[in-house]
Amino acid sequence: MSGWVFSAFYDVMRRIPAGKVATYGQIARLAGMPRCARTVGYAMSGCKDTSVPCHRVVDRFGGTKTAFDTYAPGTQRALLEAEGVLFRPDGTVDLECCLWQPEE
Questions:
Q1: Could you tell me the CA-to-CA distances from 72 to 23, 53, 54, 58, 99 in Å, in that order?
Q2: Alpha-carbon distance 81 to 91, whole Å?
Q3: Does pTM top 0.85 for this prediction?
Q4: Rounded to the nearest 10 degrees, how much is the dihedral formed by the CA atoms of 27, 31, 37, 38?
Q5: Left, alpha or beta for 11 (phi > 0: left; psi -120 to 50: alpha)?
C-alpha cells in the first residue's frame, strides 16, 4: 500500500480530539476511501509517528485491540480513559457519547 494512502488516514486521525474516538470505517470514509477500513488497521499498526493518536481508533462496536497495548495489557483502554472516554460494562467504548462527529 502506498505511503500517501496511510498519510491520508493519519491526517484524519490527527483531527480526533481527546476524549473522542473514531472507528476504522469512519477514518476510511473521511479519507475518501470508504471500503478501506482494514487498511486503516494496517496503517495504524505500522505508525511510528507520535503525533498520530492511533489509540483513539476503535472497531465498529467500540472494541479496543490488543495490538495497540504497546506497554502492557489494557494500554489502549487506559489511554482512552485518561482522556475521559467512557466504557460500557462489556469493556467496549460507549460510542453513543464518545464517537467523534466531525463537521464534514
A1: 22, 17, 16, 18, 25
A2: 11
A3: yes
A4: -120
A5: alpha
HSE-up of residue 66 (Cα within 13 Å, Cβ side)? 1
Round to whole Å and give the CA distance between 90 and 104: 31
Q: What is the set of domains in the chain, with CATH numbers?
A: 3-98 (1.10.10.10)
Mode of pairing for the β-strands spanning 57-58 and 22-23: parallel
Any idea what the Cα angle at residue 76 is, between residues 62 and 81, rounded to 5°? 80
Using the predicted structure, report yes or no on whether residue 87 has a pLDDT greater than 60.
yes
- pLDDT tens-place string over residues 23-75: 999 999 999 999 999 999 999 988 889 999 999 999 999 999 887 777 788 99
d(CA 13, CA 56): 8
What are the catalytic residues?
54
Return the pLDDT at 5. Answer: 81
> How far is the C-alpha of 21 from the C-alpha of 5, rounded, in Å?
21
Q: For 81-96, what is the mean pLDDT? A: 98
